[in-house]
Design brief:
Blueprint (H helix, E strand, L loop, with lengths): L1 H20 L16 H7 L6 E3 L5 E3 L1 H5 L3
Length: 70
């Protein structure tokens, strides 16, 4: 009975240790495009801006420049 309980505790601890260790490498590399339109944007107009400073210099999303027809 005691050896069975020890085996259960040890196996439980090992299972918890394996579960907490997590992944050892990222799933995707940094050089892959983040979305399917990235290569199209680079070929068409170059990289589109993501932020514009407002009148106070704080970064805001660059919606006008990105959505205006060119």
């Amino acid at each position: 009975m005691k050896t069975m309980r020890k085996a259960l505790v040890i196996s439980g601890l090992l299972l918890a240790l394996v579960g907490l260790s997590g992944c050892y490498r990222p799933l995707f590399t940094e050089d892959l495009p983040r979305h399917q339109y990235l290569e199209y944007d680079q070929a068409r107009n170059g990289m589109q801006p993501t932020e514009d400073p407002d009148v106070f210099g704080n970064p805001q999303p660059a919606l006008r420049r990105r959505l205006d027809p060119q």
